[in-house]
Amino acid sequence: GIQTNIPYLLQVVQHDAFLGNHISTKFCDTHSEQLLLAIQQQKDKIQKGVPVIGFLIHSLLLKHAPSNIWDTIGYWRNRMMVPVKLDHETIEVEIESYSGNEFHFQIDEQQFQTRLISVHNQILELLINQMSYRVYVSENNKGQGHLTISGVHYDMKREDFLIDTEFYASADQGKDAGSYFTPMPGKVIKVNVKPGDEAVRGSILLVVEAMKMENNIVATHDAIVELVTVQVGDMVDTDKLLIKLHDKEILKD
Has this prediction a pTM greater than 0.70? Predict the structure, then answer.
């Protein structure tokens, strides 16, 4: 459903009819098409790279900040590619360089010289290609969030996160129930179970590292481990079967 009606309300209070006090209970019905068009036009004025960069700086540098200099080197190595979902579109962001508060991004072959001017709570002041922007960001621990610029709202998501629900979906949508597949390439850094072990709902079966982020693969229900296809150190491609579970009742039969 709708996340916020702030952009809509901003267009309402800026509409000529509203400013002229020509309002009634049918105001929104009468002017709905104009209001929605104005929202889209306002959104079109902002380059897609601007919200993507704002969200990525907040996510990588602030929300999921590394704990030491070695992690920092790992995060911000040159030519790092990070996929970010902007509303319904996935955009590949290339982080070409980073030093202090200065960043150099490339998106769709366009360069974005960026400076982080200040941060206060969830508000970022950015200078992107010599244009100033105030960015409001909220983000959860799974790389999903919302961002607002000049009253325009965006749904955001880090596509490089291996989120538990994505693994659950991969096991249920046209594949064997209880099977866990990788939605993107990564490296297995921990395996906590072996065939025959009992897996309790919520327990961590194994850990996959992707884009320098550790992602727990969690059991969706109580079950028995039937098959483990990987070991620590293995590099796994997209859609690789990692582990297979069976319900206890099935094994008894």
Answer: no
